[in-house]
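Holo prediction — NAP.
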Amino acid sequence: MKIGILGSGVVGQALANGFIKHGYDVMVGTRSPAKLADWKKKAGEKGRVGSFAETAAFGELIVLAAKGTAAKETLKLAGADLLNGKVILDATNPIADAPPEKGVLKYFTSLDQSLMEQLQAAYPKARFVKAFSCIGSAFMVNPDFGEMKPTMFICGIDPAAKKEAGKILTQFGFEVEDLGGAEAARAIEPLAILWCIPGLLRNEWSHAFKLLKS
Ligand SMILES: NC(=O)c1ccc[n+]([C@@H]2O[C@H](COP(=O)([O-])OP(=O)(O)OC[C@H]3O[C@@H](n4cnc5c(N)ncnc54)[C@H](OP(=O)(O)O)[C@@H]3O)[C@@H](O)[C@H]2O)c1
């Protein structure tokens, strides 16, 4: 399967490397392809770089890894026609431009509406699945937590899209917890606030969530 990654920051690059490691063909989308020259060299023939529109055209499955405040603009540049019907793994978090307060990030959304719901409403024919949003980029691909597999919380409106996402997340070393419809992103997105607190307060960034069940 061909993967189009809309976003070229640490998340876009980490996931691109992960998909390549697992044998997928990948294109990373950016407004400035030249800045990915080093990544392209290391990625080899399975890694490509393109505009957001080229990446959306290339990808049979899309990953959204844009800055939260720019997520809508990124999808606009990608083009609705090229996103229609496709699964979009949405790694974004709605982090506001205001600085964190005592280690607590500020979001530009409320607990009554998540960023993913806004994106799903704006692109109703795309099939968004929240994924990869509540763990640091260094732990997105087969993270090593000894015996423990971390949990990846997902949600979205389309069961088949979540099944597709689940297969990828299993390959990437996660236990998958499906929390239901797009509304569940109201709970999943703020997990990134929690995940970042030990980092912002004490420079501790090496952890992941696990849902314990009895
Ligand atoms: N960092 C983490 O460990 C982590 C973990 C989980 C989730 N997340 C979430 O994943 C997303 C990506 O995070 P990141 O740290 O890799 O990088 P980021 O700095 O949040 O985002 C970088 C991407 O956003 C795009 N972008 C920025 N402003 C834009 C604009 N005005 N119009 C269009 N595109 C724009 C950039 O495009 P260009 O390539 O053209 O510059 C770039 O591809 C964020 O939503 C973040 O909250 C991050």
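READOUT: Strands lie at 2-6, 25-29, 47-50, 61-64, 87-90, 127-130, 151-156, 175-178.
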